[in-house]
């Protein structure tokens, strides 16, 4: 049985339904990447899996039990979450924010400990923000902030890590550094679930893809089995070729030439 799953999930904001009767399984020990066009429900699904968004119907299950039934600290020991647009608390420095990732490990009779100190230091080293420790978070660039938030999620030391667009605001070098780090954490045994926009990044790093469109899952499986030219055109409306990445052998999406795409989209005029 997969540790994390959702059954008959309906998610909505007020009266606007985003997904309905959605079934999803997150394979244990996988690096699962959720892809799809804007507003298809990717981030909404991730919020539900993290218990940030309460379903209108159906349920998310953790270890076979409805996640809503667990105490918050118990969930926080199992799931770490990097949201898409986290709000920076005013007047807080980097090290203090990363340390908040240890909240679930604090108890009345067990306050800050050397293991907490090492978890925070390790998370900051891995995300290369140690030299920012004393800087105010709201003074950092978007890319620096993103790495600090990732450090906070890593400091939780959870077996399952949920990341909503973790490469947002990052330049190309840091995008690969973050994804390489995620791959290393996956190889160490963590289950990673990430929302990504770049299909080639998704195919290169994921062991499992979930493809969404219009609030529904239209495909799920290994990138080599899922990512086809027909699927990309159907879901993203982009004519393309899918070839083998020369470095990794994973699927690589190559959009057709602009002139060919324009010719295909141009209406046919009858005489």
UniProtKB/TrEMBL annotation:
Residue ranges of domain ABC transporter in the record: 4-239
Region listing for Disordered, in residue ranges: 247-271
SMART domains noted in UniProt: AAA (SM00382)
Top-level taxon: Bacteria
Location(s), subcellular: Cell membrane
One of the GO BP terms on file: iron ion transport
Protein known as: ABC transporter
